[in-house]
Design a protein that fits this description.
Strand content: under 5%
Distance between the termini: 39 Å
Structural class: mainly alpha
Radius of gyration: 33 Å
Number of domains: 2
Number of helices: 8
Amino acid sequence: MHRDARDFPPGHLRVSDVERDKALSELTDAFQAGRIARDEFDERSTQILTARTGQELTAVLADLPLDRADAKHTLMKPAHRVIAVRTTMGASAVAAVSLAAVSLATALSYAPQTLAEREFAQKVAEKVLAQHGISVPVPLPASPGFDWVGTITPAIIAMLLIGLIIALHKSRADRL
């Protein structure tokens, strides 16, 4: 490998933090491509971070190819990216519709109980306990109020999913 190709200072000229970062990035690409093992990556990254000269940086990377073509093959291909985006959009749409239905059903299922219904529930509970030999006074059941959490939480999540679908659709349209 030519030292000039990596653009590090030649010989014993000092290197900067930017050049160390560039060398570390190249080493990371080689690790991700499977060219070096984890322990070797750890050892070489320490050498890069402590390197003072261009010669020291070049020596650490000398046996690694300069081109990063193999490392780029690990990136997601455009066709796979389209499939992943469409799958995410479809799953988000199904989840948003389901959550919206849950929210609507919860909102429509609110029916306030009358005092007579609550007293009847109290008597039934006391009779069931008495049949088992338990004589504890059962308090009057509370009148259920509107279930705000059960209604609004799924609605908010559904709206966030719709926002995700819109954002994915917009980013996909911008790439075309």
